[in-house]
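for the recovery benchmark. tokens below, seq after
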């Protein structure tokens, strides 16, 4: 079955209440929310991974200002619902960029759902035809606590993708102040993300390639700035552009993070396909993971994209995996054992995933890497099926 279509509703018009109610419970839709005013919906529009935005208007002329305000936040196609019959509105709307359809209420729910489905498929085709035929996946490794194993997981996973799965992989160190991904890989980079973002001129894939540090396992790295004070020059908008470019050059982009939701992190979340939430068997980490889940919900980050990773899963510390699952009300997707190979590898700058492949830790990382790649395939097939039908 197709994934439910994520929609968000803005504005108001006669008859919207009834149709909104019907859309919010429709099995083919994932109804993220509704705001009467576009200005109140910016976070959900920008970060909600929406497939379609529904905008309702009472106006008899085209609501150009509101459509432009929605466009500033998202490229998702817009379907307009209007209550008054108006040929002017219809004509202008159908010429407007990004407006997929206009429906005059009242309408049968199924007609509206059909229009949303059509708009969602057309939106996908636009992305595919927009010159960006390749779209790498972004896997973000996060945890709200320091020392839980984000960097160990991100570096080993990225190295595993590059070496064992033959994927063109970029490891991006977004722990901008104290990033140590390069050190864990035994590298002493000359250029970092800071040099890239302050370099003059438009960022494109050729330019990105000039700032990459290469590891012998085939992995490319964009390290964190060498000086903590340079972090602030890596802004949200620079990072947004960087990720768009990186997606064209790589199959996979693994992002290591710091335990904060700063601007560049928000730009990353907007584009994240899979968020690996690293948990540990300790109460403070679990408390903070819970809080982060609330923040992610406020940001309208889709819960289906979060995978929970239990690091040091075999530690005997008076807490079990089932208790973690109970406390967070989630399923742990992956377990990574505590293994001496990890600190040994960290101190040698040689990730066990490629340097000590027989270790329990390396085996667990391979399972994570393979599962993430398997999870990708049905999605692609679905997309092609959708395009063929559209
Ligand atoms: N599975 C494991 N087995 C043994 N040691 C581990 C494991 N995972 C992490 N460690 C150890 O814990 C230390 C901290 O891990 P790491 O640097 O990956 O945490 P982090 O979440 O990135 O922390 P920070 O927020 O400070 O960047 C590492 O130096 C590593 O030696
Ligand atoms: Mg780290």
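predicted aa per position
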């Amino acid at each position: 079955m197709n994934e439910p279509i994520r929609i968000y509703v803005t504005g108001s018009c006669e008859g919207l209440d009834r149709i909104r109610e019907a859309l919010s419970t429709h099995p083919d839709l994932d109804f993220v929310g509704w705001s009467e005013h576009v200005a109140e919906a910016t976070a959900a529009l920008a970060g909600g991974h929406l497939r379609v935005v529904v905008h309702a208007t009472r106006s008899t002329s085209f609501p150009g200002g509101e459509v432009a305000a929605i466009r500033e936040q998202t490229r998702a196609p817009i379907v307009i619902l209007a209550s008054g019959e108006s040929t002017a509105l219809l004509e202008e709307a159908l010429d407007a960029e990004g407006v997929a359809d206009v429906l005059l209420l009242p309408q049968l729910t199924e007609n509206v759902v059909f229009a949303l489905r059509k708009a969602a498929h057309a939106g996908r085709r636009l992305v595919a035809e927009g010159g960006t035929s390749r779209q790498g996946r972004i896997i973000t490794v996060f945890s709200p606590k320091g020392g839980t194993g984000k960097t160990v997981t991100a570096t080993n996973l990225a190295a595993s993708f590059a070496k064992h799965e033959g994927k063109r992989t970029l490891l991006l160190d977004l722990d901008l102040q104290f990033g140590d991904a390069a050190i864990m890989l035994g590298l002493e980079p000359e250029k970092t993300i800071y040099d890239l973002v302050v370099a003059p001129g438009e960022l494109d894939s050729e330019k990105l390639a000039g700032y990459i540090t290469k590891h012998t396992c085939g992995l490319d790295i964009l390290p964190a700035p060498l000086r903590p004070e340079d972090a602030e020059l890596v802004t949200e908008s620079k990072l947004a552009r960087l990720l768009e470019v990186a997606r064209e050059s790589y199959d996979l982009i693994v992002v290591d993070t710091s335990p904060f939701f700063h601007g560049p992190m928000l730009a990353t979340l907007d584009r994240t396909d899979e968020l690996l939430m690293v948990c540990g068997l300790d109460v403070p980490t679990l408390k903070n993971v819970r809080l982060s889940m609330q923040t992610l919900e406020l940001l309208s980050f889709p819960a289906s994209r979060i995978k929970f990773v239990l690091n040091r899963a075999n530690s005997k510390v008076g807490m079990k995996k089932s208790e973690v699952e109970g406390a967070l009300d989630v399923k742990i997707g992956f377990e990574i054992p505590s293994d001496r190979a990890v600190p040994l590898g960290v101190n040698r700058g040689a990730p066990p995933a490629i340097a000590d492949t027989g270790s329990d830790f390396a085996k667990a990382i391979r399972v994570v890497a393979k599962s993430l790649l398997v999870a990708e395939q049905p999605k692609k097939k679905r997309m092609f099926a959708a395009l063929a039908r559209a």
